[in-house]
Records
---
Amino acid sequence: MFTGIVAAVGRIESVTPLATAAEAADAGVRLRIAAGGLDLSDVIIGDSIAIQGACMTVIAMAPDAFDVEVSRESLDKTVGLDRPGRVNLEKALRLADRLGGHLVSGHVDGLGEVVHFAPVGESHELRIRAPRELARYLAYKGSVVVNGVSLTVNRVTDEADGCVFSINLIPHTVEVTTLQELKPGARVNLEIDLIARYVERMLSTAQAAA
């Protein structure tokens, strides 16, 4: 589990296919990630670290860096894990840690598209179009994870094929995460609120039983 509070911005330094060139289209990759200030002193092989909101398992360690393997399934359902670039990092939550954001599983539910990102006073407004299968989980003042960052939804506008939700980003969030690099048209990893997922399941089961 995670909180969606980014601990550091690291960088994917290398992307190595886990198969021959002929099989690469169906294979995963191995990533070497520079930790970017993330404290690795208590990280061991087998630990979980969220990378752009996707939970990955550490398979090798180096001074100020670590390796993970990303399956083709994960590559197909996320963005930002298939090429070198800056990434948001967060180590897995410990039971004694503060829950500064909200409960985050590190499982990307779908991809959104940035439709607007611009300054508003001292902050930034970020608007993202979410697909229909995720739209029902997004609510005013509810929680959502964007590229591993726990955020609060300020407004939701329903559309025929999904919804557009708006977020206010304070200067600190823009400064210490990769969200500062977003532009209209960019795709982002989305994880909907864990509690909303269970509420929907309970309600749908109760309706079916009735």
---
Amino acid sequence: MKKIVIALGVLSASIMAVETGKVPASVTISGDNGGKTNGQAWNSSSLKGKVHIVFYVDPDKKDLNEDLSKALKKRHFDRSKYASVAIVNLAATWMPNALIESKLKSKQKEFPDTTYVKDKKKVLVNKWALADDNSDILVFDKTGKLIYKKFGKLSKSEITKVIALIEANL
């Protein structure tokens, strides 16, 4: 019986896992679970209409993919065709939420074209089976289909691949 329960748990997690080539299940982050820095809910259905890159980050790993961030900034992609979303996994750190939320508000002012989202209860870890305590990179095409995912630090060749994917899908 125990094996059946474990198997069902693994199966249900894999069904919900975000898969390359598919539009992931719709997820909303709001209320006690978090949301945008302005207090509004964030919904994954907003990942349509433009090419989107999503950084899902443990605050303790915020610099892990800084090379990708710098490469993206240098490209100056047309914001009518490209968008970036930074989702911070607040439950993955020892740092107080108030401190991180204050930093996010200042980041939002500094980078108004990026959508900043707080995930206070690992919503995307649980709903999309993203890696916890890490820096996850997800790229979606204009239809909302996932075209790239990587959990952890990207190599230089992977950064080149992400840039090329974005350019090819603009």
